[in-house]
Amino acid sequence: MTCPSRPKLVLCDMDGCLSKDKGFPFDLDAMSKLRDLIHSSGIPFALATGRSDPYVEAVTQALDITTPCMCEHGCYLYFPSLKRPKANSCLTPAGQELMDHLRRTIEAHCAQLNCFTELKRTCLSIHPCRQGKELQSDLELLIANVKALITPEQLAELQVNRSSCTLDIVPRGCDKGAGAWALCQTLRVSPNDALAIGDSEIDLPMMAVCGLSAAPGNARPAVKERTGWLAPSENIFGVLEILDRFLSERAR
């Protein structure tokens, strides 16, 4: 089997890649192996997630990485050395104003919608209150009800994304693809030399921007169809297999 080119930057999703999903614990032994692999490779490793910057800060500390990371689906870059985020150029004042208005509207209807929102700067992440077997049907209903609160004019300025357990809304133009471009520019790495690792549809813009892509075995069907390489194992164990394949001395 032909060895892949060795990337100069790795961008890795978190939920579904480093953990099973939101609400699931990290495998600490696997995280320790990941930290060692990152440091031994010498290749910059960046988190690329929809999570908030405080969450990203905690994980960068756990992995002992200083590479700038992506948070809130590309709306912000988080700089571990500065311990603060910086808004991406895709986030305009008008986009932030629209998101602030939408957050107030949704939160005023949370009890009626049977949902709750995460505390974030811009991205609106909405969760059904019920979990378990009711989650998927509740999520479908939540999506329909939330869209009913958004005017067609507002919807044209937004991106509405669904993950396995969450409805995420960001200003149009802010996605992981925009975040990947910004990270590559910040680190002076060509996108063609970057490796994107993701598991869900929301990761596809990032995977399209980067010259290399891979996914753990639990990836959704649309990602499996488009990824450059699919790991046999799931979640972080698949990520470890991906890094072993792409960052080894053979991949040069």
Please provide a written account of the structure.
- Helix 1 packs parallel to helix 10 (235-247).
- The longest helix is centred in the middle third of the chain and has 16 residues, at 93-108.
- The radius of gyration is 18 Å and the shape is globular.
- The mean pLDDT is 92.
- Helices cover 40% and strands 17% of the residues.
- The strands form 3 sheets. A 4-stranded parallel β-sheet has the order 2-1-10-11.
- The protein is α/β, with parallel strands linked by helices.
- It is built from 10 helices and 11 strands.
What are the salient characteristics of this protein?
Hypothetical Protein Ta0175, Chain: A, domain 2, four-stranded antiparallel sheet, four-stranded parallel sheet, 17% strand, alpha/beta, 10 helices
Short description:
InterPro entries: HAD-like_sf, HAD-SF_hydro_IIB, HAD_sf. The protein is α/β, with parallel strands linked by helices.
Total domain modules:
2
Query: Helix proportion of residues, in percent?
Result: 25-40%
Low-confidence stretches: none
Global Rg = 18 Å
The CATH H-level superfamily of the largest domain is: HAD superfamily/HAD-like
User: What overall form do the CA principal axes indicate?
Assistant: globular
Mean pLDDT across every amino acid position = 92
The spatial strand order of the largest sheet comes to 2-1-10-11
Order of helices and strands: EHEHEEEHHEEHHEEHEHEHH
- CATH structural architecture of the largest domain: 3-Layer(aba) Sandwich
